[in-house]
Amino acid sequence: MTGLFAFDDATCQTLTEAHGTPCFAYSGAVAEAQFQALRAVLPQRVRLAYAVKANPHPELLARFAALGASFDCASSGELERVEALGLPRGRTFFAGPGKRTLELQQALAMGVRIQAESWEDLARIDDLVSSEGLADREVTVNLRVHPAFDITEGNRIIGGSGPSAFGVDEEDVPNLLRRAKALRHVRIRGLHVFAASNQRDAAKLLAIHSAVLELAKRLWEAHGLGFEQIDLGGGLGVAYAPEETPLDLAVFGQGLSDLLDRHPWYAHELILEPGRFLAGPCGVYLARVVRVKESRGTRFAILEGGINHLIRPLLTRQPFPVKAVGKGPGDTPYTLAGPLCTSLDRLGEVALPELAAGDLLAFGTTGAYGLNEGMTHFLSHPVPPEVWIP
Ligand SMILES: Cc1ncc(COP(=O)(O)O)c(C=O)c1O
């Protein structure tokens, strides 16, 4: 487990001397420590599948693969990145509300476990297998359900328990299962529910996971669905500010173990798909102040990069933790602006020491939903390097 910044000030300076600014740097050691800390508290029957969307850097994927991770993909590009790792079959999942036929074909060819999110997914998989002329081929899938119970989100990512593009609404599942009986090649043998995001409260995460197991039990009892996998999705939170308490891993791990004990009818595996938790803490984004400006009572620090590199603060209204490298803490209020021609280009309102042109800022916990979520093409600034420090 680590603090908000994967690299100390001296390392940040050295990195910028070698690679210039702006740049991202990822610490393999921190990513590994994060993975191991979570793995250590989980019951054996819980599998960890890293959500590639959080950060698809090839070295990061290779590091997690070496630690035994499985992978959750949601596009053909992510499938390709995982395929390049040369893993044995059975370590990759494929989710997403809008899977194209080509992507389903690719997933089938790779032997990937598909999280079917709709009747269309099921029917198209069935058709694809039929068209291969493999009359006896059976494809095992998981069914992603959008639950009727509450979804707890630290930041609005999944969109709550109202209407959703994701999964099959829980109330529509019986009808879908009736239709699925006609499928010749597809068997539903798993359940997928992703109902939390950036949640640091272990009790809240466990309450959701408990509700998912109850749902699985009802589906088993009512429809005889014999699940061999129950996928609980991602959503494990990380701290983005010193006052935020990290997720209590010991409580979380013990809670999952107790949950399995309370469900002796289910003897198979649980899957967790954390992205943010595994990748967030390993990343730092380094950018210099281009100039400082006072405008009608607001002090701006205008930086080399903005929402083209880090869009999360705009989407969630929560800044990444930031420090002025080599200057210590301070209490001067700054609005951090990027170089783009839009007043949306803000990285937060923060307290820092007095800044001047050329000062180096380091943004912590930017290993997940950082550069890969940014608007890198907007204004055609060069894409910053991503430096891997093993
Ligand atoms: C299907 C699926 N699994 C896992 C994740 C990872 O979520 P997190 O980074 O919150 O752990 C996501 C994120 O959107 C997702 O869509």
Q: Which molecules are bound besides the chains?
A: pyridoxal-5'-phosphate
Helix content: 25-40%
How much of the sequence is in beta strands?
15-25%
Counting structural domains, the number is 2
What do the pLDDT scores average to?
95
Write up this protein.
The protein folds into two domains: 180 residues, TIM Barrel (Alpha-Beta Barrel), CATH 3.20.20; 109 residues, Lyase, Ornithine Decarboxylase, Chain A, domain 1 (Beta Barrel). Helix content is 30%, strand content 24%. The strands form three sheets. Strands 1, 13, 14, 15, 16, 17, 18 and 19 form an eight-stranded mixed β-sheet that branches. Strands 2-3-4-5-6-9-11-12 form an eight-stranded parallel barrel, surrounded by five helices. A two-stranded parallel ribbon has the order 7-10. Helix 2 runs parallel beside helix 3. The longest helix is centred in the middle third of the chain and has 22 residues. It is elongated and about 70 Å long. It starts with 8 loop residues before the first helix and ends with a strand. Bound molecules: pyridoxal-5'-phosphate. Pyridoxal-5'-phosphate binds next to helix 10.
Write a short abstract of this structure.
This protein has 390 residues and is an alpha/beta fold. 30% of the residues lie in helices and 24% in strands.
How is this fold's topology laid out?
Layout: H1 9-19, E1 23-27, H2 28-41, E2 46-51, H3 58-66, E3 70-73, H4 76-83, E4 92-94, H5 101-110, E5 113-116, H6 119-131, E6 139-146, E7 152-153, E8 168-169, H7 173-180, E9 186-192, E10 196-197, H8 202-223, E11 229-231, H9 249-262, E12 269-272, H10 276-279, E13 283-295, E14 298-303, H11 312-316, E15 322-324, E16 332-337, E17 346-352, E18 360-364, E19 386-389
Parallel strand pairs: 1-19, 2-3, 2-12, 3-4, 4-5, 5-6, 6-8, 6-9, 7-10, 9-11, 11-12, 14-16
Antiparallel strand pairs: 1-13, 13-14, 13-18, 15-18, 16-17
Helix pairs in contact: 2-3, 2-9, 5-6, 8-9
Bound molecules: pyridoxal-5'-phosphate.
